[in-house]
Amino acid sequence: MVSGDSTPQQLVARALKRERTRAGLSISEVARRADIAKSTLSQLESGLGNPSLETLWALGNALGVPFAQLVDSPSHPVQLIRAGDGPAIGSANASYIATLLAPSPPNARRDLYRIVAEPGEPRISTPHARGTTEHVVIGHGRAEVGPTTDPVELGPGDYLSYPGDEDHIFRALEPGTTAILVSEHI
């Protein structure tokens, strides 16, 4: 949950600096690994700009950390995130918004997201870290989900797990499609 003095951009800025420092990498090296401009990374570390989901995934992969570590806020014993609140990151290419609900705690390897998507351009994800598995449960609407080579149409209450370490897709087939996504890391 974002506190009153921390915007999503500030959370991302602190996390990027923290993880880059832990990895012992320069801004230039992280930018190269993520295939983004050095100036873009510099702006993000300064709390400027509004990174897309794709940019944050690329940075997480470049730093060797789950996406959630880049948008996580300080933990609290009891956490409430009301619908429409929380660190929401939109896709640059699709009407797809992922809101981090529960990042992986230390020594655990899963992140929990609420997805809101609209028909149109699908969200096509490049492979995440080796061994990643994604689990999706549709809440409302319908969507094509899974490996890009063999997606499955899901409806309300349907569950699907698939390898997140290969190209995969989420294509909303009805307006207002929602889902819960768990990304499980080895």
From TrEMBL:
Signal peptide: none annotated. The keyword DNA-binding applies. Keywords: DNA-binding. Residues 16-70 form the HTH cro/C1-type domain. The keyword Secreted does not apply. PROSITE patterns: HTH_CROC1. InterPro entries: Cro/C1-type_HTH, Lambda_DNA-bd_dom_sf, RmlC-like_jellyroll, RmlC_Cupin_sf, TransReg_Diox_bact_type. SUPFAM superfamilies: lambda repressor-like DNA-binding domains, RmlC-like cupins. This is XRE family transcriptional regulator.
